[in-house]
Write a structure and sequence with these properties.
4-stranded parallel beta sheet; alpha/beta; binds N-carbamoyl-L-aspartate; Rossmann fold; 9 helices; 306 residues; 33% helix; 2 domains
Length: 306
Amino acid sequence: MHLISIDDLSVEQIESLFSTSDGFLEVASRPIKKVPTLRGRTQVNMFFEASTRTLTSFELAGKRLSADVVNIKASGSSVSKGESLKDTILTLESYRPDILVMRHDKVGACRMATRYTNASVVNAGDGAGEHPTQCLLDLYSLRREFGDLRGMKVAIVGDVLRSRVARSNIFGFRKMGIDVRLVGPSTLMPPGVERWGVPIYEDLDALHDVDVVYLLRMQMERAKGKVPPVPSLREYSRLWGLSPARLRPGQRVMHPGPINRGVELTGDLADDARSLILHQVESGLAVRMAILYHVLAPHSEGDGLI
Ligand code: NCD
């Protein structure tokens, strides 16, 4: 099966994925962190956009499951010579990969890839579209930290406009019973956001009763020649940047990374024990191992993950 959108998964499938992740988290604590689960399988990671966490965790996840893992990046590959996405995928298809993990700057590129490959395609971020594996690792981090997800309150703050993480997280968090609200200037909210059915606030006062503040990165690289949505980063950080003083007791902070210290959050908050940012990265490896395992596992329930 493919994992293109968080909507591809039911609550039961997500819970089953988390049980598998628990097992892989335990594997990561062993001196020898490798299991034979995907021995003989081939995993191709096609990353046409920059990445640190997502690429390294998918690569390490495949290697720890004993798969043969190959990485392809746009720069240094024939994509930089003008090869089309279709031709790149058809070329790789000759090697009969089992899993294609793909990141691309165009919305819908991963779904398109499913037409040209027999491999299971996993969306590792498609433009401002979706980032379902980030949503799953965030949910898993929340579950590890808080236990029950149902009834939790999370505020997603900042650059919703250009964020695929926000899209996947809003829908995935709500699916798991989390109360989600958006906070930020209206210029950073996408057109039609009111139809998503989540409350939207302009002011950080809306954080007063949440369990978690989920910060989004200001995605300056996506601005390319457009009018910037905020007058200046200094003003943004003054009005919407988070500091330890703006957090209430018991609240936790999350961020998908990479962080802009001094923009979305102060450096001291990033390093504070209330920040779950590195905990998210640790969860990411276990969850991505579980995803690789589940997309290939024999289908015992419909065409789902299990
Ligand atoms: C996110 C992404 O690439 O969408 N990062 C990530 O995968 N860890 C968020 C971001 O770039 O801000």
